[in-house]
């Protein structure tokens, strides 16, 4: 039936999806496995089929027949021949180039089943410099040290490398998951967590491989990491975004495995502990004295015989760490993330150097099973005060965004929302510290920013969890890896331009499972008829991609006069 076929493939590689079609949700679930959402207005969403989206689907086990079949099943009209051909051609490139082990560890075999690429390898000066010698009609020898640079170079010209060269075992470190946590509560893996860890472990070789696991915030990516560690059973380096994340990983490791405190170390600005399981921050690894260009802690990657390196929030992997990651391709690598979107467009570096997507579970699917909270998303459009409209009109593009983001009426709306949700634990999150300081003072709520000492941060998080503090005002430091399972309301008063990854992380702060029937509510406050409204539309792409719908509401004037007077606006 035509109404159950909501997809309209276009000859330029885009696919239109009719949101109001009864078959939309089912079709979207299939389409999102091999295409990326790029536009999401109310009635028609636009997806793009790209080489990387096809190769990630292939690496995750989706066959060419699965992709072609999904398009045929859900397309209202015939799929254009050039799209079918392009998908087939792109999919066929996955597996044309493979890396295999050599008898001696210093060398690897590059197997190339494409005559054009073999010619290019020998004629291109940069590529040929990575080859030692031609072995036969379809293979070359390369140095093991060039494993990463070669993979990175080849994906840039459209040839993903399937890496079968294997990995060093690393020094043994047996890790066993508990059945009863140290807290006394029973512990068991959820089915998707076990599937994700197994998908990673089976990838690439009989003892595990490399790759990325994509799961929503709140779905237990840390548990997947610990399970992967138990399967590998070797010394592990974990790299994450913040001190708070470091402490969370350490707590989880001690709570859910039989590792002891003497076996788990922190490597950060506060401590330099090198232990069988070491948890470090991206910041400490990329620290260098200004102007020196030298990263003094890069040697941590080689300071021990690691069997596994875990990159938490891998979509945020700093550019300097791609260089080091290219040099440690013999170590197993696991990336954990809620989204593969990178605002710098370097998703192919994650694919080639950390690994392709091995497992993904859609947010709405986990919500339906009760593993993450049901969420209601709202965009509230707020007018600018008259005096700010004149400033806005005369400002340059960057100043326009700042004026819109710091709209003082947002403080009024935030107070109203907190009153509406009195008794529900809430987070107020924003981009600009000055704005957050005013919000904190006017609402008489604690403020956490990047300047807040770690000890104070953790004390405030604990008071929030214990119900001693009804709400927190937080900067972007709370975007990542904080565990506040009781948070139910999130009010976003400003964001990082059009960052989809930030929107995903922020929603994730309130997606921990709630008591039966409880719904998490996400508000984003946007200045109406400004550039902020356009950026908000882009940020919403990620949530729309996951199946969430925004309810857009316009906050009419006049705002509550008593509140306006009280706040002095």
Keywords:
single chain; about 575 residues; alpha/beta; Rossmann fold; 4 domains; 7-stranded parallel β-sheet; 22 helices; globular; disordered C terminus
Mean pLDDT across every amino acid position: 85
Helix/strand-derived category reads alpha/beta
How far apart the termini lie comes to 56 Å
Helix content: 25-40%
Oligomer: single chain
Largest sheet: 7 strands, parallel
Question: What is the CATH architecture assignment of the largest domain?
Answer: 3-Layer(aba) Sandwich
Proportion of strand residues: 15-25%
Task: Assign the CATH topology of the largest domain.
Answer: Rossmann fold
As a whole number of angstroms, the C-alpha radius of gyration is 25 Å
Strand order of the largest sheet: 12-13-11-14-15-10-16
Explain this structure.
- 37% of the residues lie in helices and 19% in strands.
- Helix 2 crosses helix 4 (81-93).
- 44% of the residues are buried.
- It has a 7-stranded parallel beta sheet with strand order 12-13-11-14-15-10-16, with helices on both faces.
- The chain is α/β, with parallel strands linked by helices.
- The protein has 4 domains: 2-92, no CATH class; 97-163; 191-361, P-loop containing nucleotide triphosphate hydrolases (Rossmann fold, 3-Layer(aba) Sandwich); 367-567, Rossmann fold (3-Layer(aba) Sandwich), CATH 3.40.50.300.
- Helix 19 links the parallel strand 19 (447-448) and strand 20.
């Amino acid at each position: 039936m035509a109404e159950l076929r909501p997809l309209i493939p276009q000859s330029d590689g885009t696919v239109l999806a009719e949101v109001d079609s009864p078959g939309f949700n089912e079709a979207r679930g299939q389409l999102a496995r091999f295409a990326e959402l790029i536009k999401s207005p109310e009635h028609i969403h636009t997806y793009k089929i790209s080489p990387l989206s096809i190769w990630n689907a292939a690496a995750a086990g989706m066959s060419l027949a699965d992709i072609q079949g999904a398009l045929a099943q859900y397309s209202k009209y015939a799929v254009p021949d050039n799209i079918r051909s392009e998908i087939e051609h792109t999919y066929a490139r996955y597996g044309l180039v493979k890396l295999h082990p050599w008898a001696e560890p210093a060398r690897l075999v590059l197997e190339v089943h494409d005559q054009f690429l073999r010619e290019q390898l020998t004629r291109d000066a940069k590529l040929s410099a990575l080859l030692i010698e031609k072995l036969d009609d379809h293979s070359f020898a390369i140095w093991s040290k060039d494993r990463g640079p070669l993979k990175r170079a080849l994906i840039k010209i459209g040839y993903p490398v399937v890496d079968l060269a294997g990995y060093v075992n690393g020094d043994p470190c047996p890790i066993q998951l508990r059945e009863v946590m140290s807290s006394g509560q029973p512990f068991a893996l959820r089915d998707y967590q076990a599937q994700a860890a197994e998908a990673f472990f089976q990838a690439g070789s009989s003892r595990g491989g490399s790759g990325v696991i994509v799961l929503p915030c709140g779905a237990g990516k840390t548990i997947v990491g610990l399970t992967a560690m138990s399967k590998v059973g070797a010394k592990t380096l974990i790299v994450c975004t913040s001190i708070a994340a470091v402490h969370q990983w350490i707590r989880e490791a001690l709570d859910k495995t039989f590792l002891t405190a003497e076996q788990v170390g922190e490597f950060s600005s506060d401590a330099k502990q090198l232990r069988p399981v070491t948890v470090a921050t991206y910041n400490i690894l990329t620290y260098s004295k200004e102007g020196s260009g030298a990263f003094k802690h890069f040697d941590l990657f080689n300071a021990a015989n690691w069997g596994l390196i875990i990159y938490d929030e891998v979509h945020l992997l700093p550019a300097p760490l791609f260089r080091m990651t290219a040099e440690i391709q013999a170590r197993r690598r696991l990336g954990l993330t809620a989204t593969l979107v990178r605002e710098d467009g370097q998703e192919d570096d994650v694919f080639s150097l950390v690994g392709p997507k091995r497992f993904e579970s859609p947010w709405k699917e986990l919500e339906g099973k009760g593993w993450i909270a049901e969420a209601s998303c709202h965009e509230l459009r707020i007018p600018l005060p008259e005096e700010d409209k004149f400033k806005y009109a005369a400002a340059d593009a960057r100043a326009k965004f700042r004026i819109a983001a710091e709209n003082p009426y947002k403080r009024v709306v935030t107070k109203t929302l907190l009153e509406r949700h009195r008794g529900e634990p809430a987070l107020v999150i924003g981009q600009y510290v000055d704005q957050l300081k005013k919000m904190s003072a006017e609402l008489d709520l604690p403020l956490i920013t990047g300047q807040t000492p770690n000890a104070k941060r953790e004390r405030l998080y604990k008071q929030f969890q214990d119900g001693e503090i009804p709400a927190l005002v937080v900067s972007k430091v709370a975007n990542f890896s904080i565990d506040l399972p009781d948070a139910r309301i999130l009010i976003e008063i400003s964001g990082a331009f059009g960052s989809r990854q930030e929107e995903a992380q922020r929603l994730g702060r309130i997606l921990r499972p709630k008591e039966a029937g409880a719904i998490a509510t996400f508000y984003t406050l946007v200045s109406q008829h400004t550039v902020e409204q356009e950026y908000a539309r882009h940020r919403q792409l990620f949530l729309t991609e996951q199946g969430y719908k925004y309810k857009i509401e316009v906050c009419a004037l006049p705002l509550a006069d008593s509140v306006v007077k009280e706040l002095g606006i």
